[in-house]
Input
Amino acid sequence: MDRIKEPSTWAGLGILAQVLKGFFPAYALALDGVSAAAGALAGVLTENKGKAV
Output
C-alpha cells in the first residue's frame, strides 16, 4: 500500500490511460481525465527516498 503514495505509480497510471485510449477510442475523454488527474498527483507527491517505513 505504500506504493500508492509514490509519484511513479501515478505517472505510470497516466501513461497506461493514454495507451488504453488507443484501444478504446470511445472512452478517450474519460481516459484523458484519468491521465490528467494521475499526472497532477504525480507532480504534487514527493518521492519517498531513503525513509524507513
User: Anything to note?
Assistant: The chain has one domain: 2-44. The two ends are 11 Å apart (CA to CA). Residues 25 and 31 are 9 Å apart (CA to CA). The first helix runs from residue 7 to 23.
